[in-house]
Sequence to fold (142 residues):
Amino acid sequence: MAFALLNQIRSIFDGDPGVRKVADDPVLSAELLMLFRMILADGTVSESEMVAFRRICKDAFGIAETSIDSVIEYLNEFGYETNGSQAIALFRDLDVERRKQLAQHMAEIAKADSQLAESEVRLLRRTLDLLDISPVDVVKPE
Fold:
């Protein structure tokens, strides 16, 4: 209880730790922006896509559940400064596994609502081309 209160007080003075993590890591910011672009690609934001986004934030990037809404707000406020091409450019020099991870996360979000729209397919295909990733690499082994 006391630790939770101390963390809340620290958060007020230091800012949200999840937001700090995202703000301090341009590649992570770029990936989250690309995931958001995938959520918006079909023109609707489904609950299942947001659930997938939240799970990726928590499991893949260690962003606490309590920080995710603040991270989304941060991306909404500052994400307009970065377009998709700029975000992808940050990934070009990264190792192939990290690039595959971005593609897998994007595919996961696109499939989350069980309706793969043509606009989602186009965004994923264009991203794979820019990252020099084969569509085969996006399929996670079962």
Notes: The chain has one domain: 26-137. The domain at 26-137 is CATH 1.10.3680.10 (TerB-like). The longest helix spans residues 96-112. The two ends are 41 Å apart (CA to CA).
